[in-house]
Structure to design on (455 residues):
């Protein structure tokens, strides 16, 4: 069994979140700060700026003209999308390794996370730009706990898999049964350690069991369904396969019927195919 | 069961590929709720795979026009037409159905894998195509390959036949 102390120690051994991520996420929840001003003020490293501009100029965004600076990006792309690109550019480094315990080759967890970010954002289409951007970020981070839990999964995989097969429960439930924690628990602890907003902590903690969400039901439901759309259509699958539980409460929260989800999945498929620059962030070495 | 192939052709999600190139194999990966229809004519060594995502084009007719391979009812006829162009004949063709897994859902509301499998079976039956074998359902994703030299079909993981069971 994994103890909370052991888990916390592993989290403390992680590299800190990049300063730019911390500042942007703090600013995004401070009503006294104009996020646009924050983007203009923060120092963004040249390597990250290059990545972000490449995303702005990729077919995923589909602008008719080339963007050459972050200031131009603010004008043509908007603050929230630019913040998404900056976050993606910064966070991808955490996802570069393989997670052998989960059967995920290098870059595959990132690929799934980008898919879930896109899907969650599509599910937030009825909200404002900030809602959509938050859904994107939550989708990007929802499985961050797999990075920490990976080595424990490797050791206990046969037992976890046996529970999944014999009891027909989710892989996440089986993780908790064997290890005492699941990757959603671990991810939530990581998010708290990094001082991420409560909304993201909740989305990471409860995206597989949205019934447990309290303050941010809508966001959690968006990530829950976004995750299932990706899993169902094979975007970034590991050896947990499709051992995920669907919770109809998430559909009620967003006001969707299943045919709506099928239609949306086609949009996700199309957007994901265009997002190969985003997907490729975890496959590229960081420039000096 | 594997064979060294000089030419591996990947079939993506919402995609159809057909070939008669010798020493080739078609491969479709990450078949989750999506379904692959795999066909082979041994007389002319034509192999084809359709990997579709959703059962019926009524879900989005506009997208079906742009890409018929997204749906069973528009993709399957297209697959067969592509194979006929390479000299295949329906009466000689073997046909396999692979995929259609689903997440856990006690309500039964969200089961795209089952819907896809049923649609594939329906469309094939309506077109008088006999299904040779199926690897469907369960909770595992699958990969599938078909080799032009012998019409060998591989489905991985190998134990994923009908329902999940440990090898």
């Amino acid at each position: 069994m994994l103890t909370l102390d052991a888990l916390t120690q592993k989290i403390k051994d992680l590299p800190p979140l990049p300063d730019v991520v911390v500042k942007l996420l703090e600013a995004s929840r401070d009503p006294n700060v104009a996020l646009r001003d924050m983007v203009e003020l923060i120092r963004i490293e040249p390597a990250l700026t290059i990545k972000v501009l490449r995303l702005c100029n990729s077919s995923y965004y589909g602008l008719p003209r080339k963007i050459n600076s972050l200031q131009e990006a603010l004008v043509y792309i908007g603050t929230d999308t630019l913040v998404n690109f900056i976050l993606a550019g910064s966070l991808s480094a955490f996802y570069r390794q393989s997670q052998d315990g989960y059967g995920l080759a290098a870059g595959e967890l990132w690929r799934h996370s980008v898919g879930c970010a896109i899907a969650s954002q599509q599910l937030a289409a009825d909200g404002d730009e900030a809602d959509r951007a938050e859904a994107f970020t939550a989708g990007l981070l929802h499985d961050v706990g797999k990075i920490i839990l990976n080595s424990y999964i490797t050791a206990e995989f046969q037992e976890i898999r046996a529970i999944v097969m014999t009891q027909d429960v989710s892989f996440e439930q089986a993780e908790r049964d064997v290890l005492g924690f699941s990757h959603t628990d671990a991810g939530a602890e990581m998010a708290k350690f990094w001082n991420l907003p409560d909304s993201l902590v909740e989305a990471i903690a409860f995206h597989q069991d949205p019934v447990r969400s309290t303050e941010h039901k809508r966001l959690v439901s968006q990530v829950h369904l976004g995750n299932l759309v990706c899993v169902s259509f094979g975007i970034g699958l590991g050896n947990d396969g499709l051992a995920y539980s669907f919770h109809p409460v998430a559909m009620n929260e967003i006001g969707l019927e299943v045919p709506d989800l099928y239609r949306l999945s086609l949009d996700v498929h199309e957007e994901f195919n265009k997002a190969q620059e985003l997907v490729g962030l975890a496959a590229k070495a960081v420039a000096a | 069961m594997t064979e060294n192939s000089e030419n591996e052709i990947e079939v993506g999600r919402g995609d159809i590929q057909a070939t008669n190139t010798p020493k080739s194999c078609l491969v479709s990966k990450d078949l989750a709720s999506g379904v692959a229809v795999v066909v082979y004519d041994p007389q002319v060594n034509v192999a084809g795979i359709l990997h579709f995502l959703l059962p019926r084009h009524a879900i989005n007719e506009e997208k079906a026009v742009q890409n018929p391979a997204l749906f069973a009812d528009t993709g399957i006829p297209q697959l067969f037409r592509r194979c006929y162009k390479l000299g295949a004949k329906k009466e000689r063709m073997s046909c396999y159905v692979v995929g259609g897994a689903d997440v856990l859902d006690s309500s039964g509301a969200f089961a795209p894998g089952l819907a896809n499998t049923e649609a594939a079976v329906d469309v094939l039956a309506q077109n008088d195509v006999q299904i040779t074998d199926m690897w469907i359902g369960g909770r595992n994703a699958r990969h599938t390959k078909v080799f032009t030299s012998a019409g060998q079909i591989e489905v991985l993981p190998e134990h994923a036949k009908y329902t999940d069971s440990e090898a």
About this structure: The first helix of chain B runs from residue 61 to 66. The helical segments of chain B are 61-66, 72-85, 112-126. Chain B has a mean pLDDT of 90. Chain B has three helices and nine strands.
